[in-house]
Structure to design on (503 residues):
């Protein structure tokens, strides 16, 4: 009987749970789903990570290449994130060019890391040949159950911490760079941005870490990205019903708590990989 | 474009023209300093069966940059503009219809997203579409010293590289006219919670000026005898 009610009147079904301050999957309004992290699973990539938040599964693979630095920032390398939502993860995505949601997610991730001066950029120069590293980060969703932005940020952060770049020497005779894949060194990550997503029901009830159904029924969505110093890296609210200052403050405090949890998780996993090697 | 003191909020000179295009149902051109955006609205019109929603209209937003084809950056701006418009339009009054909003960037000298939002709102008003509230866009930049600049120019928006006049963080808010609350927020760069609250307060103050301008320009337009 409950299944019939859920299909016929999904909004009323969710409202009946929210009245009791809980949600259909048994979580509290401010509870995140269990997050598991697995790193280094893709051996052909320079760094990789797989994140599962409930059913939402995101995998991130990083490939490093040598290229000329951009004109705007000639002293540094750069990161190119790309979020892909293939038809595999959900029936709402059709095959073909990336849809708006995937492109908006890619732009969001690019904005979050753009001004985070947190990677050690290795610049090599020999004669007039300026080289820098470019990291192509491919973030793919394998199972879409809401809240992909948070999972993408965690996957990207864990994959960057897992990335090992090979040593480069310039061959003086041929003036070309030579890659030594045996010697590798990791990246220095100074900032750890972690996101927390919320959605608003009926303009006033705030819930944390929405599933795909909750996202489709919500009136507004919000993602807050904080780093370990308590500073905000991004406040992403792409429209929807307006939010009061107090609710915004609640979101920010929940996001800072979440940042600490996830940072501990990532450090634990990286540590366990190091001790296993 | 002046630096904001404790209570003084300065926006660049802005201007608007409505009903300037003959084909769209509603059109407007919004100018903020040197940034200029033209908007056209078509609707409510027929919608493809695959896209129709049984109980409300569907809104499509297209942002065309000045040069080149729309890229990933335009897609994310379109998402912001579309969700803001959907929240303020009464879409359930036009079920199984489509509304199309096209924004053409004529010149970008900073605060582009807020200029797009303002042009969109004026075009929706010009088309006579029913809305529950109006909205306006305000952009704030935080400099390296922590000062807040409203409505920054392109030079003031540039990320920090050690030159003067650059911003550590850039944020755009859409404020609604009913309760002056934040409908949309898009930020770049890092900032503290206190700075965020200051920027929101400053944007709410600046939105007063813009809403007053909307009111004045519509009053002036409808008081002329046609």
């Amino acid at each position: 009987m409950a299944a019939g009610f859920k299909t016929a009147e999904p909004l009323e079904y969710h409202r009946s749970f929210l009245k009791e301050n809980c949600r259909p999957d048994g979580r509290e309004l401010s509870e995140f789903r269990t997050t598991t992290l697995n790193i280094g699973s893709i051996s052909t990539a320079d760094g990789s990570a797989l994140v599962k938040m409930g059913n939402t599964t995101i995998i991130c693979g990083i490939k490093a290449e040598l290229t000329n630095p951009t004109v705007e920032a000639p002293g540094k390398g750069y990161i190119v994130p790309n979020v892909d939502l293939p038809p595999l993860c959900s029936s709402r995505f059709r095959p073909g060019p990336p849809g708006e949601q995937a492109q908006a997610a890619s732009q969001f991730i690019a904005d979050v890391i753009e001004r985070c001066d947190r990677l050690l950029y290795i610049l090599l120069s020999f004669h007039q040949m300026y080289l820098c590293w470019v990291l192509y980060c491919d973030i793919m969703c394998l199972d879409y159950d809401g809240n992909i932005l948070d999972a993408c940020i965690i996957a990207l952060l864990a994959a960057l911490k897992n990335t090992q770049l090979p040593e480069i020497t310039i061959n003086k005779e041929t003036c070309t760079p030579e890659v030594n894949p045996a010697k590798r060194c990791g990246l220095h990550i100074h900032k750890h941005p972690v996101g927390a997503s919320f959605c608003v029901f009926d303009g006033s009830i705030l819930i944390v870490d929405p599933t795909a159904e909750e996202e489709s029924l919500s009136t507004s969505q919000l993602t807050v990205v904080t780093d370990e110093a308590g500073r905000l890296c991004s406040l992403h609210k792409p429209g929807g019903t307006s939010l009061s200052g107090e609710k915004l403050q609640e979101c920010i405090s929940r996001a800072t708590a979440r940042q600490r949890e996830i940072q501990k998780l990532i450090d634990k996993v990286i540590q366990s990989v190091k001790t296993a090697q | 474009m002046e630096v904001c003191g404790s209570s003084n909020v300065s926006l660049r000179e802005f201007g608007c023209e409505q009903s300037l295009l003959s084909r769209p149902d509603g059109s407007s051109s919004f100018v903020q300093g040197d940034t200029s955006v033209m908007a056209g609205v078509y609707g409510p019109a027929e919608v493809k069966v695959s896209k129709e929603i049984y109980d409300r209209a569907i809104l499509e937003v297209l942002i065309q940059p000045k040069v080149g084809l729309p890229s990933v950056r335009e897609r994310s701006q379109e998402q912001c503009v579309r969700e803001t418009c959907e929240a303020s339009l009464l879409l359930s009054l036009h079920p199984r219809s489509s509304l199309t909003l096209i924004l053409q960037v004529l010149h970008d000298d900073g605060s582009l997203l807020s200029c797009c939002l303002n042009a969109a709102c004026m075009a929706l008003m010009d088309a006579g579409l029913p809305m529950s509230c109006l909205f306006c866009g305000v952009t704030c930049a935080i400099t390296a010293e922590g000062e807040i600049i409203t409505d920054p120019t392109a030079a003031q928006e540039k990320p920090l590289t050690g030159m003067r006049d650059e911003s550590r963080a850039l944020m755009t808010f859409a404020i609604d006219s009913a309760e002056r609350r934040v409908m949309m927020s898009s930020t770049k760069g890092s900032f503290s919670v206190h700075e965020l609250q200051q920027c929101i307060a400053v944007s709410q103050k600046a939105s007063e000026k813009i809403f007053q301008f909307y009111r004045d320009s519509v009053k002036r337009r409808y008081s002329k005898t046609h």
About this structure: The first strand of chain A starts at residue 35 and ends at 39. Chain A touches chain B through 37 residues (CB under 8 Å). Chain A is about 30% helix and 35% strand. Residues 5 and 178 of chain A are 64 Å apart (CA to CA).
